[in-house]
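Lab notes, practical 5.
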Amino acid sequence: MIDARKFLLVGSAILLGALAAIGASWARLEDARSRSLAATDKLAECQRLADEIKQLRGGAIATAGEPARELELTRQIAQAVSDAGLPASSLDRIEHDAPRHSATGAYLEKPTRILIRGITLRQFITLLHALDRPADGLRIDRLHLTAPQDATDSKTWTAEAMLLHTVAEPRNGAKDATGPDTSD
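Output from the prediction step:
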């Protein structure tokens, strides 16, 4: 009878130990599940905010690694010149300068200079209006107008504009806002 009691006591202890281990595992599983749900909610919120930023900017945010961007900008400038009623020959020069970081360091500014000859002020304003698109990261930084030198043609000017195309690119060493959340 003592052996049966010992056996029952040892068996009960093992059963209680197993139940305690199962309970601890269950609690740990529940904790992992709640953290997973919280992370899913955070991800959904981040995606919603990113979509809202895209919508407010009027489209996708460009990245600095887009090699075709200069070609596309050149095409857009040529189209704006045409839309302003200027012949293609009046577009004397398009120069894409070396990119530079903005003062905040979170953006890369790509300057582009354009030089147009024989442009009226109305055409120039029309052209600037077509090229100034802050929602696309494109803005006019500087303007320079040269008055007509010839007294017979007092309506056409020479115009130079500096366009800045701003793209998201943090400097090396800058904290990347898209990195994982390690605060837990």
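Observations recorded by the TA: The first strand starts at residue 91 and ends at 96. The chain has three helices and five strands.
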